[in-house]
Design goal:
Layout (H helix, E strand, L loop, with lengths): L3 E5 L11 H4 L4 H12 L4 E5 L3 H14 L2 E5 L8 H8 L5 E5 L21 E4 L5 H17 L1
Helix pairs in contact: 2-5, 3-4
Length: 146
């Protein structure tokens, strides 16, 4: 069984402290624990970086090693053509994940490059949505295997 990759972009290491009125008080360590619990026996590569380069390198790793990707690219969602190009190479399911409902926020957050290649998009469920995304990704992986 190949791992799923849960990749988190810039400033998500500040979860629990950063704008709690938008992102809540759940920390990234708590999110990771929820994801690992939701994945059960499935191996999980859970990572966070503030570096676009590192995020792209992890997508490349997932291309070779992973069954699916959940990605919260944070600000890179709206700026990174390089991330889009990397994700386009991934053959498995991709869930674009956002803690907040980006469509209820300022218009700068309404155009996602990642959405152009994502299998599905989840937004606005809060940090508690991560395990929901893990279970949804498992369903997408199973569908693809049929």
């Amino acid at each position: 069984m190949k791992p799923i990759y849960i990749l988190n972009g810039p400033n998500l290491n500040r979860l629990g402290k950063r704008e709690p009125e938008i992102y809540g008080t759940t920390t990234l360590a708590e999110v990771e624990a929820m994801c690992r619990d939701a994945a059960g026996e499935r191996p999980v590569e859970f990572r966070q970086t503030n570096s676009e380069e590192r995020l792209i390198e992890w997508v490349h790793e997932a291309i070779d090693e992973g069954d699916g990707i959940i990605i919260n690219p944070a600000a890179f969602t709206f700026t990174s053509l390089a991330l889009l190009d990397a994700l386009k190479m991934f053959k498995g399911p991709i869930i674009e994940f956002h803690i907040s409902n980006v469509h209820r926020r300022e218009s700068i957050y309404h155009r996602s490059y990642v959405s152009m290649t994502a299998t599905t998009i989840m937004a606005g469920l809060g940090a508690e949505g991560y395990p929901v995304a893990v279970r949804a990704l498992e369903t997408l992986i199973a569908k693809k295997a049929r």
